[in-house]
Amino acid sequence: MKAEKINPKDISRPSEQMVELNPADFMKLPYPYDKGEDEPAFKRLKEDQKKKYETSLDGVLAVGIPRPATKGEEDELVRKFLSGLEKLLTKENNWTFLQPLTLSLEYCAKCQTCNDACPIYISSGKKDIYRPTYRSEVLRMIANKYLKKSGKLLAKFTGNDIELNWTTVAKLAELAYRCTLCRRCAQTCPIGVDNGLITHELRKIFSQEMGIAPGEIHTLGSVQHLKKGSSTGLMPVALKDTLEFLEDDIKERTGLDIKFPLDKEGADILLIHNAGEYLSWPENPMAFAIIFEAAGLNWTLSTDLLGYDAVNYGLWYDDVQFARVAVRHAQIAKKLGVKKIVIGECGHAHKAISVIADRIINEEINIPRESSMTLLEDLVCSGKLNLDPKKNAFPVTLHDPCNMVRLMGVVEPQRKIIRKICPQFREMEPHGVRNYCCGGGSGFAIMSSMNFPNWRSSVSGRMKFKQILEAFQDVIDPSIKKMVCAPCSNCKGALREIFNYYNAWEKCGISYTGLVELIVNAMVDIKEPYIEWPIM
Amino acid sequence: MLLQLLSYLALVVFAVGILTRVVKYLRMPLHVRWELYPIPHEKGREYGGSYFEEVNWWEKPKEKSFIGQIKFMVPEILFVRGLYHDNRKLWWASFPFHFGIYLVIGWLVLLLIGAILNIAGLSPESAPATFLQSFAVIFGAVGFVLGVAGCIGLLMFRIFDSDLRSFAAPKDYFNLVFILSIFLTGLIAWSSSDPSFIIFRDYIKGVITFSPVTIESSLVLAHIILLSLFLMYLPFTHMTHFFAKYFMWDKVRWDDERNLRGSAMEAKVKQVLNYRQNWSAPHIKPGKTWAETATEEVE
Question: Hey, how many other C-beta atoms are within 10 angstroms of the C-beta on A39?
């Protein structure tokens, strides 16, 4: 029997847990996972965790807010939430998103068209609390009832008779982190409402007013980024050591003598990678260096604080942190006197510095920014590199990072490259601007506390895994090695976790890589295969 | 004359209400870019690409495709294309509802033209006036029928579809019933009292010339009263999306205007960076401008 519908007002009712997640309810996966036997059991929270943290949403912890000790503490948090919401609707505090937010709050017709576009809602087996409209409607109701003059008087008629209490705020904090901000929902809204944006703004109330955000994206993320130079904790001295080690590795793997150009003033290009690449997938920055040197580009890396880590986690939850990181990136480029910044394979860094920061980095620090996809397309398709597609003789599919594709419009360059160098390329469906998120968007790929990774791989990444399996159904036998090309660090991180979670290499022979690795693998002058299987 | 006064009041409240809302959105500050692809004015990139796909894009002129935008907007506005693709079952109710509204607006415009021509001296019995009026009959009758069907369909969805019902408020049903009552009175008035819409046209003539008109048909009367009341209510509801969509699409979803050195955009950015923020989290110092906040040393 179908469970009773949960309406937005239900969020205010104190309950042990609003929703119970059961893998048996989740969206079915294709062969060889169609029997459901390989579905890992869903990790439940331990009793002590339940006692310590607010777990009343779905028994999953992304933020992990400690339970307030007293009613007074609860009331104070509720007051702060409301003051944050109020600030969100003023131009001084929120000029960055005031107009889009106001429009999205005022115009939802509650037609629910966006629901079916949301991979999390569908993958979860259509749990009501994961509807894109759910958290938006709750926030809209609170704003209408508590911040409008006649809000309380008309609350019954307008449907805004919601109770703003601690349980509402605590559940909203977690619920703000059950959406990857992929904005597929916004794409289908017939009116133009953006529920992804509302989630983004909700996260800002918690971070900018209440100081509440997942540790991985704030304390260990943007704060560490600004302090130490990288959200990975990689400091400039360690970076230089790492690069020396990578130079040796390049020599060993390819025979090429390549020195990473560092802090070269007046270079044409400042290349900035997601620093996670240096630690998790060093073959990616190595491949960039091989390609750039082969093409004879005048480029450099920076070893300045922040200059070697393109991430900008503020994009997901905090405009202030966002602006700080964006400005520092631009200042470094200005100091070096480069002609342009080129962003490595990192989707959110692409959107952060190219699109969002476009109206923050201003005047003399407004240095042009370019996608590496575009530059690579120019190198590959103009014939500047000697490539043999036969060296990539295995099935390949391409994942579209949301930030780079739907949210920035860089769609074709990576495809043109893959079509040229991967003869067995096949698209996932849907793809391009209609793609599905990897499940790791908006910080999820790096959030790893308690049972959140379990939720990420089995719920938020489920649609992507389904797409990948479908794309490879004709070659699903594990003896046929297959590659998912994901030109984005966070997407690769999410895919790594999903593939491990479902033993995708052992069961299906599916691995993943970036785009430059495939290009170098096709380079005629490099004798040994550059790609190593599996990358897990 | 009371009825006419109500109509004048309705027109004034409608115009002021809409204008107030438009001004509110126009006066909002510049926001950061938050576009969503495809953007139809991107020339030759219907698949969803952008100028970011070009090497050294800032050195190239930005070409906007006006035709691309029109090609997107016409089917979207007239036929609710987005819903057709993404929520077909609801489209079967939403399309007749919206198309019914367009036809009724067309009907009013035709009646208005007829009334003006009449005032200008064209006999209502003349061939052009009769021709115009027969068009008005088609627009009105079809519009009312479609509107009634659409309203009933949308009401049925709100009542019987559990996904919609669990989010529905009394206001949502009220709005639909209100609009249904307008379509329905119009439809019945046409079929029972005013098959050529002569009474309606003469009423509009009276409104334009400030001369009293006596309406004997209670259905025509009811329709005019309901429509007037609705015009006064509309500016305060989400149904103003008919103009807000301009802001949501053109000013947010498709806003890819670049901030180039020395541009007007650069000056606007400078202005918003001087707003003083007042956030309270530990990592933010309230009272500083955004420019100061973004560049201060972080502890």
Answer: 16
CA distance A319 to chain B (A): 9
- Which positions 198-237 of B are in contact with A (Cβ < 8 Å)? none
Partner-chain residue, chosen from B163, B238, B266, that has the shortest CB–CB distance to A107: B238
The 10 Å CB-count burial string (b at 16+, else e) for A213-243 is bbebbbebbbbbbbebbbbbebbbebbeebb
pTM: 0.96
Q: Which residues of A, range 357-386, sit inside 8 Å of B by Cβ?
A: 357-360, 362-363, 366, 368, 370-371, 373-375, 378
Summarised one tens digit per residue, pLDDT across range B233-263 is: 999 999 999 999 999 999 999 999 999 999 9
pLDDT of B2 above 90: no
Q: What gap in Å lies between CA A117 and CA A170, rounded to an integer?
A: 26
Question: What is the mean predicted confidence (pLDDT) over A420-425?
Answer: 98
ipTM over 0.90: yes
Say whether residue B285 is in contact with chain A using an 8 A CB cutoff: no
Q: Which of A509, A501, A531 is nearest to A26 (CA)?
A: A501
- Give residue-wise pLDDT tens across range A312-368: 999 999 999 999 999 999 999 999 999 999 999 999 999 999 999 999 999 999 999
How far apart are the C-alpha atoms of A227 and A220, rounded to whole Å? 10
Closest-CA distance of chain B to residue A506, Å: 36
Residues 6+ apart with CB under 8 A from A24: A36
One-character DSSP codes across A141-167 = HHHHHHHSTTTTTTHHHHT------HH
Query: Amino acid letter at A71?
Result: K
Write the CA distances from A455 to A22, A45, A203, B188, integer angstroms: 11, 12, 19, 56
Distance from CA of A320 to the nearest CA of B (A): 7
Retrieve residue A353's tokens.
């510095």
The dihedral through the CA atoms of B109, B111, B112, B114 has a sign that is: positive
Tell me which chain A residues have a C-beta less than 8 angstroms from the C-beta of B277. 92-93, 320
